[in-house]
Write a structure and sequence with these properties.
By secondary structure, the chain is α/β, with parallel strands linked by helices. 57% of the residues lie in helices and 11% in strands.
């Protein structure tokens, strides 16, 4: 997701979290019994009943000891999703997992309120190890997780960021003093994720400033990482906690992880996946240097770095990032030229041509660099206009430009019923009833069936008495 401005909001978060870390007790107010060993769909915050969260307590949880906790933020307020994804890791390593049911993409105040409410409520209910507090999130939620850790100096031990990194206002550079970032950072990114370039670049920056970091890739797009990747992330945080003295040294755990990582790296090298082996050896050395003898793997890393395969792999990654950015800028430029009467027709044709070519490549059945670039670019341009529309509607009430953005987003996501529905609401907010009803009909044709959402949307109030609106409702009711 593209970052937005947060100066005032960030200051509020920082001040509030500093207050919380000095005033909360460890489960002193725990009164009711909460189920252990299974996902709890909803826990309502005692101090703020409007805030709630999904929860997983390890089956071995007891208030007699203090436990690591992971606060999770989903961009759509689907807190149960990350709780389920982290459940296996939480049970294995003994973590409490909390997923906000309120924090979502949009005005920052909502995420501020949610994070503060979760922090207060969980510290009041549960026995938490304040030296081992972690945050995680996907996309916009990842940025929330990073903001909290960055602003709450030294009170968050690590961040697991899926599909996005730092906000531009706090993004580190090689010149940033390491002391300004006090948490370990584990990022995940799909091979087709439009934020691939951002996270690859960030990984290099974190290496330059010496921050404990790891980047895990998986096959897929812009999404929460799979369970196995997230379990690796938690295991990595366990090891970082040992290295930082936040938990007792566990030789069995270290040996198990050492064995897994060394076997994986050697397997990649044996399979002639030279570049992947180089990346694995590099991570192995960084993670275990103070825990195991790594000279053998340091030599492997240096040796592989000089091979033609690794040099080509590094060039290809840089080239992929550059080409995606060029294509994204090109498509956005075409849209800008469509605003000019003299260049509109040519720009429209060029946009359609490039869009069609990217769609064709993105649908290829065999994975390739070209397919990855095409998918990342399409998602990147879509996010630019789709998220832009959301901000224009929620923050600025600029409905005409929001309509324009959603029209472009609907051209890219040509089969999305969700985007077409939101375009219908934008038309309605902009006073274009006929277009709103037409877009609503097309949303239904694409598969939209949520009558309750239609009837409760404030934006559609102006068209609900229209005959066409009733016909659309009837058409949904008649669907099998």
């Amino acid at each position: 997701m593209k970052p937005r401005g947060l100066n005032t909001a960030c200051a509020i978060v920082a001040a509030t979290l500093i207050l919380l870390t000095t005033s909360t007790a460890h489960g002193a107010q725990q009164q009711e019994e909460i189920a252990k060993g299974r996902v709890v769909d909803k826990v309502v915050c005692k101090a703020d009943p409007l805030q709630s969260y999904a929860l997983y307590l390890p089956s071995s949880y007891t208030p007699e000891k203090r436990w690591p906790i992971l606060y999770a933020f989903d961009p759509g307020a689907e807190g149960r999703v990350p709780v389920e994804l982290f459940q296996e890791a939480a049970e294995k390593y003994g973590w409490i997992i909390v997923g906000s049911l309120n924090s979502q993409n949009g005005p920052m105040k909502g995420s501020i309120d949610a994070s503060n409410a979760l922090w207060k409520d969980t510290h009041a209910r549960f026995s938490i190890d304040d030296r081992r507090i972690y945050t995680t999130g996907f996309s916009g939620g990842a940025r929330v997780a990073v903001w909290i850790a960055y602003l709450c100096q030294n009170c968050v031990a690590g961040v697991i960021a899926c599909g996005a990194g730092f906000h531009t206002q706090i993004a580190p550079t090689p010149a940033t003093p390491p002391a300004s970032i006090s948490f370990a950072f584990f990022a995940t990114v799909g091979t087709d994720d439009f934020n691939f370039g951002e996270l690859k670049t960030l990984d290099d920056v974190l290496a330059a400033i010496g921050l404990p970091h790891r980047l895990a890739m998986f096959e897929g797009g812009h999404m929460w990482a799979p369970k196995d990747v997230l379990t690796r992330a938690v295991a990595w945080m366990e090891m970082q906690a040992i290295k930082a003295g936040r938990r007792p040294k566990d030789e069995t755990l270290i040996e198990d992880l050492w064995k897994q990582e060394t076997e994986s790296a050697r397997g990649l090298e044996a399979s002639k996946k030279t570049y992947d082996a180089y990346v694995a050896y590099r991570a192995l050395v960084a993670d275990f240097r103070s825990l195991r003898e790594t000279k053998e793997f340091e030599a492997k890393m240096v040796q592989l770095k000089e091979t033609a395969e690794v040099k080509q792999g590094l060039r290809e990654e840089r080239d992929q990032i550059r080409r995606q950015q060029e294509l994204t800028n090109q498509l956005i430029a075409f849209q800008e030229r469509r605003k000019d009467v003299e260049t509109r027709a040519v720009a429209f044709g060029e946009f359609k041509r490039v869009l069609g070519d990217l769609r064709k490549k993105s649908r290829e059945t065999v994975d390739s660099i070209e397919r990855r670039i095409a998918r990342r670019t399409l998602h990147d341009v879509f996010a630019f206009y789709y998220e832009g529309a959301g901000n224009l509607i929620q923050r600025r009430k600029d409905y005409p430009i929001a309509v324009s953005n959603l029209e472009i987003a609907s051209e890219i996501a040509e089969h999305s019923s969700q985007v077409m529905f939101e375009l219908a609401t934008a038309y309605a907010l902009n006073g274009e009833k006929k277009k709103a009803l037409d877009a609503l009909r097309r949303a239904v044709e694409r598969g939209f069936t949520d009558i309750a959402r239609m009837n409760s949307s404030p934006a559609l109030e102006a068209v609900r008495k229209e005959t066409e609106y009733q016909k659309i409702l009837e058409s949904i009711s008649q669907k099998p």
